[in-house]
Specification:
244 residues; Deoxyribonuclease I, Chain A; six-stranded mixed sheet; 5 helices; 23% helix; globular
C-alpha cells in the first residue's frame, strides 16, 4: 500500500501541483492521497481535479471526498481524501477538531489563543471492514490545544469497531526545534493508541526545513516500510509518501 499526504496551500499553485502528479512516478501507484488545505478553482473542488490528474497519469480510477473546515481569506480551506476505487463502500465522515471545553493549558498559551482565536479544524474519516483512514489538519497555535485535537482523533478511533489497519495522515503543524521535543505529548498519545509513525525518519516536510507532516499506522503493519518526500514548488509543504 502507498499513501501520500500533502498540504497544498489552498491550491494556489494548482497548475504546478498537477504537473508534479502527471510527471512524477511516485503518484502513479497511490492507494490513498490525504490532502490538507484543498480549496476550489473555477467552481470545481481541488480533490476532483487532482483525482482526474492521477487517473490520467496512472490509468486507475479514483474516488474523492472533500469537506470544508472554514473560509480562510475568502477561500474554502478543506481536507480531502482520494482513494483507489473499491477501498471504501460508504461516504467518508467529518470529525470535528474544534470547540473543546476545559482544556488544561498554561496561562501563556491561553492568553495567546485569546489574542489569536483557534481556526476551525476537522479530520476526515473513511473506513471499511479492513481499513480506517483519518486525514488530519491541526491548528497552527498552541501545544495543549493541538494535543487535544490529536486526542480527538485517537478517541474517535477507540469508539469505532476494530479494523485490521488504521492510518492517520496529515499536517500536525508541529513547529519548533526538534531537539526540544515540544511535541512529546502527541508522540506519547500516538504510542499509547498503538500508532506507529511511518515517517519517523524524515527530517523536513516544509520549506522552513521543519517537519510538520506525518503518517501513522496501527494494526497489521509489516516490519519493513519506507517513507520519503519529493521536492516540489507547488506548495510550502512537500508531498510525503509512505509505502508498506
Amino acid at each position: 500500500m502507498r499513501i501520500c499526504t500533502w498540504n497544498i496551500l489552498l491550491g494556489l499553485r494548482l497548475g504546478k501541483l498537477l504537473d508534479a502528479i502527471r510527471t512524477q512516478a511516485d503518484f502513479r501507484d497511490l492507494d490513498l492521497f490525504a490532502i490538507q488545505e484543498a480549496s476550489a478553482h473555477d467552481g470545481r473542488p481541488d480533490a476532483e481535479t487532482i483525482a482526474g490528474a492521477i487517473a490520467e497519469a496512472s490509468g486507475r480510477e479514483y474516488e474523492w471526498f472533500q469537506a470544508t473546515a472554514q473560509l480562510y481569506r475568502g477561500r474554502e480551506q478543506a481536507n480531502a481524501l482520494l482513494w483507489r476505487r473499491g477501498l471504501f463502500d460508504n461516504e467518508p465522515q467529518v470529525v470535528s477538531l474544534s470547540d473543546f471545553a476545559n482544556v488544561p493549558m498554561k496561562r501563556l498559551e491561553r492568553t495567546l489563543l485569546r489574542a489569536i482565536p483557534p481556526q476551525r479544524r476537522i479530520a476526515i474519516r473513511a473506513e471499511s471492514n479492513a481499513l480506517r483512514v483519518y486525514v488530519m489538519h491541526l491548528d497552527v497555535i498552541g501545544f495543549a490545544h493541538k494535543h487535544e485535537q490529536f486526542r480527538a482523533i485517537v478517541s474517535d478511533m477507540a469508539e469505532r469497531p476494530p479494523v485490521p489497519l488504521t492510518l492517520v495522515a496529515g499536517d500536525l503543524n508541529t513547529f519548533g526545534p526538534p531537539r526540544l521535543r515540544l511535541w512529546r505529548r502527541i508522540r506519547a498519545t500516538a504510542h499509547d493508541a498503538g500508532l506507529v509513525e511511518l515517517t519517523y525518519g524524515l527530517r523536513r516536510t516544509h520549506w522552513t526545513a521543519q517537519k510538520l507532516d506525518a503518517i501513522y499506522a496501527a494494526g497489521t503493519i509489516p516490519a519493513r516500510h519506507r517513507a520519503w518526500t519529493l521536492p516540489s514548488r507547488a506548495s510550502d509543504h512537500l508531498p510525503v509518501f509512505s509505502e508498506f
